[in-house]
């Protein structure tokens, strides 16, 4: 038996990648829903060997799913995650909106999977940003063995944080540097 899953923000880079990873991991999904803003209603996204059409977040009945992967940005998460959680499903929020909320566990499955039991207040799970998640996975066994007291870390965030527009701009600039086109100016 599989889960009924909705990916909110399915037309964005991260939402599309979530769909790809769920398929790659053969996550047990009986029903998949792509959900996005009204302007993306009907946009097709890939799910395995199929395409599914995006549904409007404002009209979607979240009570019919078990799990919602939320990747539509902090503003959308603040607006929708608690409403979705009250409808019944567990929301795994990929934004920074709930990372400091004392009623929402901050979970990295390889580090603190038991914290999922703390998600009952709002039915929301937060995850740390990408660099932190990777770091704590590496640090956890070291901490277990030697009790790390402090780590000093510098990160240089990827352009992907700017979404599709940022990635497109980088691609166009890269092409221009290698003589494959003009350098467009960003606004």
Which features does this protein show?
single chain; 187 residues; alpha/beta; 6-stranded parallel β-sheet; two-stranded antiparallel ribbon; 8 strands; 19% strand; globular
Overall average pLDDT? 91
**Fraction of helical residues:** 25-40%
Number of distinct beta strands: 8
Assign an overall shape: globular
Using the CA coordinates, give the radius of gyration: 19 Å
Largest sheet: 6 strands, parallel
Content of β-strand: 15-25%
Series of secondary-structure elements, N-terminal to C-terminal: EHEEEEEHEEHH
- As residue ranges, the low-confidence spans are none
What is the oligomer described by this structure? single chain
What is the number of helical segments per DSSP (H or I, 4+ residues)?
Answer: 4
Distance between the termini: 49 Å
**Order of strands across the biggest sheet?**
5-2-1-6-7-8
Q: What class would the helix/strand composition place it in?
A: alpha/beta
